[in-house]
Amino acid sequence: MFKIAINGVCGRMGARIAALASEDSELKLVAALERSGHPMLGKDVGSISGCGDTGVKITSSLTVHADVLIDFSSPESSVTIADICSKKNIAIVVGTTGLGPQQHEKFQYYSQVIPCLVSPNMSIGVNILFNLVGQVARMVENEFDIEIVETHHRFKKDAPSGTALRLAEKICEATERTMEQDVVYGRNGITGERPANQIGIHAVRSGDVVGDHTVVFGSLGERIEITHKAHTRDTFVRGAIRAAKFIAKKPPGMYCMSDVLQIRSY
Fold this sequence. Notes:
By secondary structure, the protein is of the alpha/beta class. The protein contains 9 helices and 12 strands.
């Protein structure tokens, strides 16, 4: 049995992780963390996850040992809890989006001490999509224009989504493009003719959409569209729990969902 802790437990993802973890016979929830001053501090985690009395109180500090911690919070909080995990020898799974280069460098540093898995999207389908778009981009070369459109609920704080950025990174890796030179974020005004190497990313915010991502490969006369639609947040939760079980006993290092799912890159 794996002992797990959750950081950001009162968020949409954190609460669902607590709920599904309580139903998993391989997991024992030992800590539920939230920011200082949160109104739910001191309450049983079952009160926000709908899984009844668990005996685990929501706290702002990690005072017990766990095998692995799952984090869906904010970029700043994710780095802070990773530092704590590195000192307590606790593996960490991070699904927080909006992470910048400096924060990714921090996780690389902590991965020398503990196993770290950082992914903008924990779903199986999206991670298959990450692999597919690189393959398609290599095959079509510059004959097709590439655009990425992502849609999320109105409450999402970062744009474009971490998943859209990772899709663009995978295409750049496969085609010798660069994020800095070849990616544009939306368009406005008189933009001129579209450069052949350009990758456009467009963010839509609407209602309660969990997460849709479409990669469009378009040429003169035909178009290829690859789309992933998430119907429920439980898709990401199950992926995060699977990732937690995967890295709980792994040696220190940086891991990704491709490792968990054994997706082979081509």
